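Supplementary Note 2. Why include the ligand at all?

Several targets in our set were suspected to adopt different conformations when bound, so apo predictions alone were not considered sufficient. For every target with a known small-molecule partner we therefore ran a joint prediction. The input for guanosine-5'-triphosphate is given below.
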Amino acid sequence: MFEALSSKLNGVFDRLRRRGALSETDVQEALREVRVALLEADVALPVVKDLTARVRERAVGQEVLKSVSPAQQVIKIVNDALVEALGGGEGDTGARGLDLNAPAPVPVLMVGLQGSGKTTTSGKIALRLKTREKKKVLLASLDVHRPAAQLQLETLAKQVGVTSLPIVAGQTPLQIAERAMDVARRELYDVVVLDTAGRLAIDEALMAEVAQVKAFARPHETLLVVDAMTGQDAVNTARAFQEKVGVTGIVMTRIDGDARGGAALSMRAVTGAPIKLLGAGEKLDALEDFHPDRIAGRILGMGDIVSLVERA
Amino acid sequence: MSRSTAKLTESVTTLFRKRRLDEEALEELEETLIAADLGVAASRRIVEGFRKTRFGKEVTDEEVKGALADAIAEILSPVAQPMPLDPGHAPHVVLVVGVNGTGKTTTIAKLGQQYRDQGLSCAFVAGDTFRAAAVEQLQIWGDRTGCRVHAPAKEGADAAGLAFDALKAAREDGTQVLLVDTAGRLHNKSALMEELRKVVRVIRRVDETAPHSVLLVLDATTGQNAIQQCKVFGEMVNVTGLAVTKLDGSAKGGVVVALAQEFGLPVHFVGVGEKAGDLRPFEARDFARGLMGLD
Ligand SMILES: Nc1nc2c(ncn2[C@@H]2O[C@H](COP(=O)(O)OP(=O)(O)OP(=O)(O)O)[C@@H](O)[C@H]2O)c(=O)[nH]1
Ligand SMILES: Nc1nc2c(ncn2[C@@H]2O[C@H](COP(=O)(O)OP(=O)(O)OP(=O)(O)O)[C@@H](O)[C@H]2O)c(=O)[nH]1
Ligand SMILES: [Mg+2]
Ligand SMILES: [Mg+2]
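The joint prediction is reproduced in token form.
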């Protein structure tokens, strides 16, 4: 699938090869294929439209570098627009971790759809903060819905070697959050990770529940955890969580799969929140920093050409 | 008039206003399909069929959407099939597979509930010996649905060995349906896929006709990657049918249409919630109308 798209694009661009500057029709034709490539990579339709419009504006009439073809130049422009949209600008290396710059204990709230990877990511964040930043981390599960969810987090805490909030049956998520913050203050924790149950963006009651938890805990980071395989619905999810809960960062999981991860672009575009971390496996050390250029390359699938133009 | 009412009225009037089915209208239709995750190729194919028969005609949005839903339902109806259960097998073994977090364990619980309601004896195999508290999760579902759970003696035990023992036990105690849970795994991880094949091989040592069903669980939120999942799981463990979960959300699961065209695998079930009762048969027409935003 990858190669087919790539060669189709090259086909279009071959026709542009011998021309000097980029004309409107050249760009238009090239962007039709780019549109398909982005949609196949699961970038949401409105986001694709927006991006191609921006590229069109930027590309038409642009001077072409002597040593590359106009075709390659367009790809580079698309790629740069992608990198920019994903959060990197000129000279941005893109590495951005969590912002924990607040009085301890710093609450971090994990939210997202069912099965996106919130609990696993909570464990990964605890491990990273403990080993890299020598923080004292408390893990607390507010998931009273999924069978054995609290036990899952407790097990992960043991594997990481951090404390998890003792499980008390019958408490509401809000009560658990209150208890977690209370313990954290008394026992001098640096960071409290509040894991929540998965919820659908259209589930008014559960969205209100997590909003209530947020209003109480006032987390310094509210991380929306999304699956890299997510399709077009990414925009609806992002919009709902942004509007009803508020998001400060995005974590994209299952980057170890072979999905092209266009949802990253959709999520970023809709929430405006930066992508902070990537989940790259089931093991607890499989947490990576986000680099816009790498994800852009993965979405577009034309890394070779981009680096060629960069070297020119 | 509130904003949402205004919006609703507006969309209802556009729904019934006649307009010419021109290039622009066709493009809009294609976009509706793409936004429902059908993918570019399948969306184009379906809209092309429309161009041939209806181009230039005056139609209302309602008519055109209804007709498009009918066209999609036609693609889907051959794959809308219940999961066959053969009472001749004792037990009928269902292996449940899929990538991480799609809803395998919950779907097993829902199936258990359904079979128990039909008066069948049903047991679960907690074959996810990897993920934290996966066994306990299934054990709770076993308690709730009245299904026996075969759990590993210790953490990290071999899933294939567990399935072997469970199947032998099930043959002895007269269990009619044995549902085997597996750890979520990404299809591009060959070592994990190999492990899954081993589960199948070992099960066959007890009953060479088993597993009788291999159910691939797909998350409706998933985009085009579902095609790859279907392809690789199909090749590796001979998937016999699909279940699509989380259709109670805003995701439409349109990639199923592309899957139907490409693989023709039966779609047995849809998951519409987190409770044991939230499993439904896959209905081509309902699903297609849902895709088009019609009820
Ligand atoms: N391959 C891979 N698997 C992951 C990753 N992150 C999480 N998982 C797996 O995804 C599945 C679901 O993860 P959970 O952490 O339980 O997801 P959750 O969002 O807490 O789920 P709910 O609480 O049910 O909403 C598990 O099998 C995890 O091992 C990742 O980055 N890569
Ligand atoms: N809304 C909704 N949630 C569902 C549905 N099916 C499963 N879930 C939820 O999705 C999450 C993951 O479900 P599991 O059954 O644990 O998924 P799994 O495939 O077994 O996950 P792993 O074993 O970690 O790979 C849980 O929070 C479930 O409650 C469904 O049809 N609708
Ligand atoms: Mg969880
Ligand atoms: Mg499971």
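Residues A 118-119, 143, 149, 195 surround magnesium ion (ligand 3) (CB under 6 Å). Confidence is low (pLDDT under 50) at residues 1-8 of chain B. Comparable summaries for the other entries are listed in the accompanying table.
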